[in-house]
Design goal:
The protein is of the alpha/beta class. Helix content is about 45%, strand content about 10%. The strands form six sheets. A five-stranded parallel sheet has the order 4-7-10-1-11. The protein has a two-stranded antiparallel sheet with strand order 2-3. α13 packs across α15, α14 packs antiparallel against α15 and α19 packs across α23.
Length: about 500
C-alpha cells in the first residue's frame, strides 16, 4: 500500500535521504547501473546498435547528459527515445493535483507550496508511472513558446482572483508538465529559433519569462532530441547556444549487415497473421527484400541525403506476404509461401520510399525499383551459389526450352511446370531446400534459381514470354563475372 499523505511518505522508502533530492538523471543513472550489473538487456528490440549507438547512449546517461540522436529517417531514433523510460522507477510520488508533478519534499510551484503550508503533513500524495513521465513533441514551425513553456491564463486568474502576473495564473506548457520526467522533441531543427532559445534558457538558468513576467522554474527534466542532418539546411537549424548545451550528440545509422537488416524486418513486419494458414517465408526471400534497401542506399540514382528508410523492407515484406496470402486464399492452399514474383507485386511499397536524383527521375521510380529487385536477387543468389554449375539448366533453355509462370497458380501447378527444366530442382539444395520441404518452398526456391540466372544474364525473362534462353552477348557475362568477384568480397560475411 503506497503512502497517501506527506506524513506517511516521510516514514516510507520514498522518504529516505537518498530518494528525497534525487534528480531524474540520478534516477536513470542508478537504474542503468543496476541493469548493467545484473547483465540485463539495456534496450529491448534495438538490433544492430550493440557496438555503436547503445554504448554511446549508456555513456550519456551515466554522464547525466541531455542528448540528441542524429540520423536519417528510419533509423530507430524515436524508438530509442521512448525506450529511455525503462530507466525510470516504477512510480514516483507527487503532490496530488499538481500540474507539473512536484516533488513533495521540494515543491517548486506556488500552488503546491501554499497547499503544503495549509495542510502540512496531511498534504495528499499521488503517484506517476514511468509511462506518464514521458512527454514527446513533434517539432513543427507552428509550435509556440506557450505550447512548450506556458502562457498567462486570464480565465484562470479571474476565477481564482489572482493577479495577472501571479504564478497561480500560469497555464503550464509541455516542458513544465514533464517535470521529473523525460521531455523528447522529434525533428528539433523544425522548431523555430525563438522556441529553441526558450529551451536552452530554462535548461541552463531554470527561469523563463512568460508574457513579460519572470517565472522561476528550476525544472528537473531529462531533455532528449532527434534530428535529421539534412534538416539543418533544408528546413531549419539548431541554434548554436542550444546545441552547445546538449551534452551528447549520438549518430545513428542503417543496419551494417544483411543479417541485422533481416532481423529488424522480421521483428517489425506483420508476417505472422491470423488467416488460419501456415505462413512460411523462405530465408532467401527475406534476404532479397532486405537487399533491395541495401542496393538502394548505394545506388547513384537515389538521393542519399534523404536516405532509404528501414520502413522500405518492412512494408515490402508485408506486401510480399499479402500477395502470397491472396494467392493461397484464391487457390485454397493451406500454406502461404512467398516467391520472387511476389516481390515484383510489392512495387508500391518500394517506389513511395525512395527519393530519386535527376537521372533516376528520367527512368522513373517503377523502373528503378525493378532494377533494385534484380540487383538484390543477384547478390543473394551469388551468396548461396558461388560455384554451383547451372550448365544443365541453361542448356535446357538454349535448346529451345521456354517456361512461363504465373503468380496466381497454386504451388503444386508451378512446381509441376518447374520440374520440366532439367536439373533445376536438384540445384535448389544450395538454397537449403530439401526434397521433403513443403511444395510451396520448393517452388519458391526453383523460381529463385531461375530469377538468379536471369539476373546474371544466363537466361532471359519477359512478362509476355516468361523464361527463355538469353540473347545477351558473352562480353556482358564476362563483365558480370568480374563484378561478381568484387561483389563476393564485399558480401563475404556468411548469412545465418
Amino acid at each position: 500500500m503506497l503512502p497517501g499523505t506527506l506524513g506517511e511518505l516521510r516514514i516510507s522508502r520514498f522518504g529516505d535521504e537518498s530518494n528525497r533530492g534525487r534528480t531524474i538523471k540520478d534516477e536513470m543513472r542508478a537504474n542503468l547501473i543496476r541493469k548493467l550489473q545484473e547483465k540485463q538487456p539495456v534496450f529491448a528490440g534495438i538490433v544492430g546498435y550493440e557496438d555503436t549507438v547503445i554504448p554511446q547512449v549508456i555513456n550519456a546517461i551515466l554522464s547525466r547528459h541531455n542528448m540528441i540522436l542524429l540520423g536519417l529517417r528510419g533509423q530507430a531514433k524515436s524508438r530509442i527515445l521512448r525506450e529511455l523510460t525503462s530507466f525510470l522507477d516504477d512510480v514516483v510520488p507527487v503532490v496530488a493535483g499538481c500540474e507539473i508533478n512536484d516533488n513533495p519534499f521540494n515543491p517548486i510551484c506556488r500552488r503546491c507550496r501554499d497547499l503544503m503550508q495549509q495542510l502540512g503533513e496531511g498534504t495528499p500524495i499521488e503517484y506517476r508511472s514511468r509511462e506518464e513521465r514521458y512527454v514527446e513533441k513533434l517539432a513543427t514551425p507552428d509550435v509556440t513558446i506557450a505550447d512548450i513553456i506556458g502562457d498567462i491564463d486570464p480565465i484562470k486568474a479571474a476565477k481564482g482572483g489572482h493577479a495577472i502576473g501571479s504564478e497561480l495564473s500560469v497555464h503550464y506548457g509541455l516542458l513544465p508538465r514533464a517535470n521529473r520526467g523525460i521531455f523528447a522533441i522529434n525533428e528539433l531543427p523544425d522548431l523555430a529559433g525563438k522556441i529553441q532559445v526558450g529551451l536552452f534558457n530554462i535548461m541552463q538558468e531554470g527561469d523563463v519569462q512568460i508574457k513579460g513576467y519572470p517565472v522561476r522554474l528550476p525544472l528537473d527534466v531529462m531533455l532528449v532530441f532527434s534530428a535529421n542532418p539534412e534538416d539543418y539546411t533544408a528546413r531549419g537549424k539548431i541554434v548554436t547556444p542550444l546545441k552547445d548545451r546538449i551534452g551528447s550528440e549520438i549518430k545513428t545509422h542503417y543496419p551494417a549487415s544483411l543479417e541485422h537488416g533481416v532481423a529488424i524486418t522480421e521483428q517489425e513486419a506483420w508476417m505472422h497473421r491470423n488467416s488460419g494458414r501456415n505462413i512460411i517465408v523462405p530465408q532467401f526471400v527475406k534476404q532479397v527484400v532486405e537487399g533491395i534497401a541495401f542496393k538502394a542506399r548505394a545506388d547513384q540514382r537515389i538521393d542519399k541525403r534523404s536516405g532509404v528508410s528501414q520502413r522500405l523492407p518492412i512494408s515490402c515484406i508485408e506486401n510480399v506476404v499479402s500477395n502470397a496470402e491472396r494467392r493461397a486464399i484464391l487457390t485454397g492452399e493451406d500454406h502461404v509461401v512467398p516467391r520472387i514474383s511476389d516481390i515484383y507485386s510489392a512495387l508500391p511499397a518500394i517506389t513511395g520510399k525512395i527519393e530519386l536524383e535527376y537521372e533516376g527521375e528520367l527512368k522513373g521510380a517503377d523502373t528503378i525499383a525493378r532494377d533494385l529487385i534484380r540487383q538484390a536477387v543477384q547478390m543473394v543468389f551469388r551468396h548461396y551459389c558461388p560455384s554451383t554449375d547451372f550448365k544443365q539448366v541453361v542448356d535446357w533453355f538454349e535448346m529451345g526450352g521456354q517456361l512461363k509462370l504465373s503468380d496466381a497458380e497454386p504451388a503444386a501447378t508451378t512446381l509441376a511446370r518447374l520440374e520440366r527444366v532439367q536439373g533445376l530442382l536438384e540445384k535448389t539444395e544450395a538454397l537449403g531446400v530439401k526434397t521433403d520441404s513443403p511444395v510451396g518452398v520448393r517452388a519458391a526456391a526453383a523460381e529463385m534459381v531461375l530469377e538468379g540466372l536471369h539476373s546474371m544474364d544466363k537466361i532471359s525473362r519477359s512478362d509476355e514470354r516468361g523464361f527463355a534462353a538469353s540473347d545477351r552477348k558473352s562480353a556482358a557475362t564476362q563483365e558480370l563475372y568480374r563484378d561478381y568477384t568484387m561483389e563476393k568480397n564485399r558480401y563475404k560475411k556468411p548469412l545465418n
